[in-house]
Each structure stands twice: as structure tokens, then as C-alpha cells.
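Q: Could you write out the predicted structure for this multi-component system? I'm mainly interested in how the pieces pack against one another.
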Amino acid sequence: MLTPTRHEIILEQLERYQTVKIQDLVNETGASESTIRRDLSQLENANKLKRVHGGASCLHQTSEELSIREKAAQNLNEKVAIAKEAASLIRDGDCIFLDAGTTTYQMIPYLKGRNLTVVTNGVTLLEELTENQVPTYLTGGFVKHKTRALIGRGATHSLQQYRFDKCFLGVNGVHPSHGYTTPDPEEALVKQTVLTLSQEAFVLGDASKLNELSFSSIASLQNATLITNENDPERLSPYQEKTNVKVVSS
Amino acid sequence: MLTPTRHEIILEQLERYQTVKIQDLVNETGASESTIRRDLSQLENANKLKRVHGGASCLHQTSEELSIREKAAQNLNEKVAIAKEAASLIRDGDCIFLDAGTTTYQMIPYLKGRNLTVVTNGVTLLEELTENQVPTYLTGGFVKHKTRALIGRGATHSLQQYRFDKCFLGVNGVHPSHGYTTPDPEEALVKQTVLTLSQEAFVLGDASKLNELSFSSIASLQNATLITNENDPERLSPYQEKTNVKVVSS
DNA sequence: TCAAAATCGATCAAAATATATCAAAAACAA
DNA sequence: TTGTTTTTGATATATTTTGATCGATTTTGA
């Protein structure tokens, strides 16, 4: 049996059972213990698994929540400043859409006690929203495991019931010629749908997102007002030429 | 059994019952008492649990979560027994609806690693479902503050996209002549909608729900199979006359 | 309160597993 | 083919994990 085949088997077993014993792999592959050990060492170096006494276990799985928290902590000050500005744009009685994401999440404290209705596709936003007693509707859809965002046909179908005064979207990339982009095509589709349903649209993109490009296109720049903390005039001007830009200081 | 597997089991049990006894873990894992003690020490150092005399208890419990968990702890053994029976009825490849509720919540551990698709209107079920890697769709709708259930037009509208092999519903009252009832008319409407979309329907109702009556009518008895832990023949017979009843021992 | 029962922590030897090394086997190139 | 390199399996020597034991401590129930 070839080495890549063995590696494939090991990773398959891991995928399936989370952990795998060396003895089981010996039986499964017919290779010797030494060989399996070498395989496991290699795969560990390649960061594909973690060796444990007696076998190996897969890397992620647990502490999924943590990674979301970690992500939320990146550029936190910038995100809060942008979120605060975004929240200040909301008028009494507005019905708004809040995108799943860490920047939009930071808007929630500023929504407390205000007269508005929120629709979101972000399950992670929900707890915070209900704690702040904001009347909330959730879109339906498939639960994306990594981000707990609701996507797919169910999400776009649910959205058709609503119309929004304003929507607030997070993105991964903002680019002068390629516009707003995000890695997941399904998420991009949801954002596109929201754009068509909103009177006004705002994209929340901190400076680290500017001039970045991601796989799936959402819309061109002029389809939304950009809220950012970038304040270098040179880096800003390509955007200001094509769309409304609100700059916050952080 | 590998160390990570044992740790996983310990944390699962904790998640489920809030506390766990060393003896139970010895039986569950087949490892010795010493080993379990060492595991608990390690997990305590990793800040994943708190050791107590005779076992361990879980740490985190946000205020909101607490009240939900308290409710979930009521009649826990009965609920687990009913949930286990309910889960055993699911066939490979089934697409099922899981109602929001504490009894249906207990079904989730039994769904792990199985080939099925779940649709639910219970936001509280979501975390557990994704942790158990069950592909999950959420209905849309208004988020009911107290229970985090999705209700209203958004929920019923979302549901129309789906068809279910089986649905598993929780109720507040089961009554020989008034059938299944629940306090919230909006929730009742969701349950009714689900019933019309399911090939087979099951209601999970522990003995405390029998002969109880609540404000909103969902359906008459014969519209669903009742799964209960009531085993007094006299109390059971009115139900057995009118519908299928599965009795579990708890 | 006290004594019995249960549980705990520390220790130790046995079992299982890990690492390093080396020669045989296989794959490869000329 | 022959010589070289890579992979493999075996072996010997560490290391880690494990389960049992025992005295100490805590809980339980009268």
C-alpha cells in the first residue's frame, strides 16, 4: 500500500471517529506499527492531526466557540467604533437587517431600548439581541457549522417576506474595482438578496478589509455606503470616488 | 479507549446532566477509577469542569441559560428515556423535524453520527445539534423571548419549503378528549403546520403532561403517536383507545 | 456527635506505548 | 545488471499510562 493511501485512510478514520488507535490502523492497512507511527508523525507535522498516546485525535472539533470569540477580539476597537457609527444611523421605527458577523455583533449594545425591529441570519447575534430586549426575527436556512450563519435556499426564501429600511452587512473584502466580496458563495447570495430588499445599505469594513479581494462577489461599491476606520486619504480616495464613505476615528 | 475519547465522553455527560459521578464514568468508559480521577484532574486544570466529591460539575452557566437548564432538569430521567425511544424510531436517511423544547433536546445525543437531516424551530437546540455534527436547518420566524422558539408567520412560511419523514413534538397538555394542547397560540400554529407536513408524527409527553389541558389546541390524539413514560394501565387506557401509544420505562 | 461508608490522593509495579536505531526489502537510476 | 536511495519492519530501550493498593480525608446517617 502506498503512503498517500495510508494517509488517506488515517484521515478518513479520524474524520469519522474523531480519534483513531494505532492498532486499528495496523489492522486496517496491514502496515507495521512503525510505519503507522511514522505516518502519524508526518501528518502531525503537516498539522492534520494531533498525536496522542495510543493513536491520534483530530485537531479542531472542541472549543469551536472559542475561535469565534477569538475572531471577535481582532481589531475590536475599530469594530466597536464602526458599529457605533452604524447604529447612530438608525431612525426610530426602522426595520433593519443585521448580517451575521463580528462587526455587526458590536452594534447590538447600541440598539438597547430603541424602537426598532431587527431581522438577522446570525445565530450568534441572537443571544445578545434577546438579552438587550430587541424584537428579533431570524431568517431560516441551513446552519453553517463554522460561523452559525444561516445560508442557502431556506435563507433567501425566508428573506422574501421582509422589506428593510436599512441593512448592515459585513464583508471580507472591499476593493475599488471588484467591490464587496466574501469567501462563501452561499453567504454572498444571502447578502445580495438582502441588498435588493433594503432602502439603504451599509457595509461595515474596517481598514484591514480595504483593498482585499475574496472569492465570491456580492455587489459593486456603489450599491452600499461604506463605513470604515481607514483615514489615509490616499487609500480612501478610490472608494470616495465611487460611493458614499463614512469614516470613523478609532 | 483513547484519552481524548474519554474526555469527550466526560464533557458530554456534563453538558447533559450538569454533574457526573465517577462511578458512572467508570461504567460508561470501562476505565478504572484512578484513570477517571486523573482525567477529571486534567480537565479541571484545563478549566473545563470543576471537581466535586464523587465526581465533577460543569462551570459555565449564564443567567439566561440557567433558567432553561433548570426547566430541562425537571423530570430529566423520564425525558431522557422518552427521548431515547423517540430517537430509536428514526431510520437512516430520514428528514425529521425537532420541535423546540426540553424533551426533544434530549434526543440530540442519540442523533450523533447518524445519517439524517434535522429541521428545527428551537434555537436552544442548535448549539447541541451543531456540536453533534448533525446537519441542521432552522426555520425562520420571530424569536420568542422566553423560550427562544421561532414562531409566527415567518416560521410557518419557512416550513412550507420542507417535507418530513417524521416529526417529534413537545406539548404541555395531553388530554383524552381535547387532544394535544400548548399555552401559546403561535406555537400551536407552528406545531399544526409541522403535522401537516410530516408522514409520521410523534408527541413526546411525560407522565406529568397526561390529563393536562392548556390554552391552545394543536390537534386531536389520533394525529400523532404518543410516547410517554406513564405505565399505570388505568391512566393509559383512554389514550390507547384513541391513538398509538409507546410506553417507556424510566 | 460519632462511627461507618464512601471517596480521595499518593505511590508503585505492570502493561502499553513511544522513540531510536539498524538491517532487510523495495524502488529507483544509470 | 549494479549501486544508491527510500521505505519498511523488527528490535531494544525509554517513557507514559494504567489499575491496584493503602492510608488519609470527607460525607453520610443515626
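A: Regarding packing and overall arrangement: Residues 22, 33, 37, 51, 53-54 of chain A lie near DNA strand C (CB under 10 Å from a C1').
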